[in-house]
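Changelog note: in this version the structure field was regenerated for every chain. One regenerated record is shown below for reference.
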Amino acid sequence: MPLIAISYIALALALGYGVTVLLSLAATFGITAASRGLVSKNHRIRRAYKYVQDGFWLLCSMAGGYAAAMVHEGSHAVFVATGLVVILVGVLWLNVWEMRQRGLGHQIAMSVATAVGVAAGFMLRLR
């Protein structure tokens, strides 16, 4: 694989990850500022917010997949999409504190949402 292709793959992965995480942070801060009671009670994440978080994580990962596809629309698109999913799900599962707060069911739901969102973002861009 030529060095230029590796550079575009790395750029696409970094951009996709950055867009996903920054949009997720912005959504989290926005929702928390708008409705603190929806997000937590007694320092625990509320069940309703967990469902909201699952939904906006799907949208954020879709935007990240779309951004990654903008950089790398070439022959390695499947590789880039798979790499982005692996990176996002890996980080999702390595964040132990948030994983405990969310619970196993929501952690699995967010993992599936990551794969679906990245694939949808790529498909939207590549259609």
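Spot check on this record: The chain has one domain: 3-126. DSSP finds six helices and two strands in the chain.
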